[in-house]
Write a structure and sequence with these properties.
Length: 352
């Protein structure tokens, strides 16, 4: 058993390690440094015309800036800012599509623009596949949590005096369920419309999920049931995660640093779960192994990035696809754990 758990830890660390060294450069990309692209965007923003497309948002730019004396928060100023933002986004999109078509005809491979691959839009969706898969992940968490809720509330025996569940982690899992659901909502919004606000909400929500699930994983693995001990475990991680979210939102959205923080939290969790899966008597430990290895393998999709196939399916969207079955398995593991802990406690009671 010890040998196999060591092997598990070794492989999980190996799979998770590249995540630590990956850094995402978002500011400058080869595509947006191209003079043809820069000229195209400039002309489009001035005239509102690009090829056969007419962008109304750019044509009615009025004087191009908010009227003198009006504050940035007045309704008219906000409307103008929103219009200019949409004009810029549309111009960039059409210029990217034009440049990519020229590159394709010239036998060149796709390049990134402003830190992102060129994606084909569908209706209002900038990255339709990632947005749809984020919604599917949300649905998987919702159904997973609902079936967990029904299990602990109605199907498993309750304590005779208090009528509360025997499973001591039920409350923590209920709170946990809110965080990934929130994160997948913002992920769908971000992949639909990429602006500063949606990006920060997506990143912050994802960090919150990683931080809370790390706390919960450690509490479960070390069987921490007493309130004060739980606070001792949670407090340093909670303080770190809160500071990190504040840093990203109000100081600097540093992609490279954020990636390191997320990879480190993910790796600690994967190594902890893999070790536990190797030593626990929990009957559904095999499910846990699949989640751990599946999760580590899925992380590779974030490391080995590639351009979107047919303009839709890139590595990031495949990563969102991979988390769909993993989420199903994760919630079935949580349900099995609730059943296992309940049966252990009720058997101990009967034996007395
Ligand atoms: Zn995403």
């Amino acid at each position: 058993m010890a040998g196999s758990s060591l092997w598990v830890v070794g492989l999980a660390s190996l799979l998770a390690l590249p995540g630590i060294f990956v850094s995402v450069s978002v500011q400058a990309s080869p595509g947006d440094a191209d003079p043809h692209y820069i000229t195209c965007v400039g002309e489009c923003q001035n005239t509102g015309i690009i090829g056969s497309n007419i962008i109304n948002r750019c044509q009615s730019r009025e004087n191009g800036s908010t009227s003198a004396g009006s504050s940035w928060y007045t309704q008219e100023a906000l409307r103008m800012q929103w219009k200019q933002l949409n004009c810029m986004t549309d111009c960039r999109y059409y210029c990217i599509m034009r440049r990519e078509e020229e590159r394709r005809l010239g036998g060149l491979s796709p390049v990134q623009y402003h830190g992102k691959w060129p994606f084909k839009r569908v209706s209002v969706f900038q990255e339709p596949l990632s947005a749809a898969l984020s919604a599917l992940n949300l649905l998987m968490h919702l159904t997973g949590w609902l079936s967990f809720f029904l299990l602990v509330k109605y199907r498993l025996p309750l304590r005779p005096q208090t009528k509360r569940t025997y499973y001591e982690y039920a409350g923590l899992w209920h709170i946990y369920a809110i965080l990934p659901m929130n994160a997948w909502i913002w992920s769908s919004v971000f992949h639909t419309r990429d602006i500063d606000l949606t990006e920060k909400l997506d990143y912050s929500s994802a960090v919150a999920v990683l931080g809370y699930s790390l706390i919960l994983t450690l509490l479960r693995i070390f069987n921490v049931k007493e309130g004060a001990a739980r606070v001792m475990f949670a407090a340093p991680i909670l303080a770190f995660v809160t500071t990190h979210i504040l840093y990203l939102n109000f100081y600097e959205l540093d992609y490279g640093w954020n990636m390191k923080v997320c990879a480190a939290m993910g790796m600690v969790q994967i190594v902890a779960l893999a070790t536990w899966a190797g030593v626990t008597r929990n009957p559904s430990r095999f499910r846990l192994w699949v989640v751990v290895f599946g999760g580590a393998l899925a992380m590779l999709l974030e490391v080995f990035d590639f351009s979107p196939y047919k303009g839709y399916a890139d590595a990031h969207s495949l990563w969102h696809a991979s988390t769909v079955p993993l989420t199903y398995l994760w919630w079935s593991f949580i349900k099995d754990d609730a059943e296992f802990c309940t049966s252990t406690l009720t058997l101990v009671k009967k034996a007395r």
